[in-house]
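Can anyone check this?
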Amino acid sequence: MASTGKRLTALSDEDLGRLLSLLKGADSVELKLTVPEGHYRSAAAALGMDPLQAQLRQVFFFDTPELTLNGAGVVVRARRIQGKGGDSVVKLRPVVPDQLPDSLRKSPNLVVEVDAMPGGTYVCSASLKGPGGIDDARECAQGTRPIRKLFSKQQRAFFTEHAPEGVGLDDLSVLGPITLLKLKFAVAEYTRPLVAEMWFYPDGSRILELSTKCPPSQAFQVAAESRGFLTGRGVDLSGDQQTKTKSALQFFSKELAGASA
């Protein structure tokens, strides 16, 4: 698949055409912002976030200790969700929607989404989802359930098609879990629902991400409105943007390397 990571501020006419093509083929757009460290409390206060309304989650990633899957653009994960149960995902990124097989594209379990962050960075991904029990991922981490049992037949086929040759689901290591709080909330002056996720890494570090979703046809308008709203509330948009998944994979990969040593 062709890379879709570009910056809008440096797009040529040709690149802009590619982005518009991705948006046309996507199901949704998620606009994301990583709040700079040291600004968490002020951002929470400015937006009126109530942590007691947040949902507790655990995320388990599966990869080799060397992050072979991540290097090939494949992400495999499972979640435990307070009050809901669990789920699993096999994600491929970057993707070009038009290059996905029609049979897969029509699956109700597949979501094609463009993630966009300040500065114009964006990537298109395809996530094949499946339901699960609240303890399924935990049992994998404890070694009492094979990893492949977390995933449906359709997910396993999707994984086999895109994973590096010779890497099977049961060959993977458990990376995690990582605990997070997810809060869905609204602000009177902003017409769209907002989501805040606080990821707690075992070394004490944290990442706070704000996001909102919209239809692809509204992406540019919602991005402009969101930027104006957040800056008006004093939320800093200038910090370095971090990706939650990449940070988690790197942390747990180093942890595995240290344990092996």
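Reply from J.R.: I decoded it. Residues 8-260 form a domain with the Hypothetical Protein Pfu-838710-001 fold (CATH 2.40.320.10).
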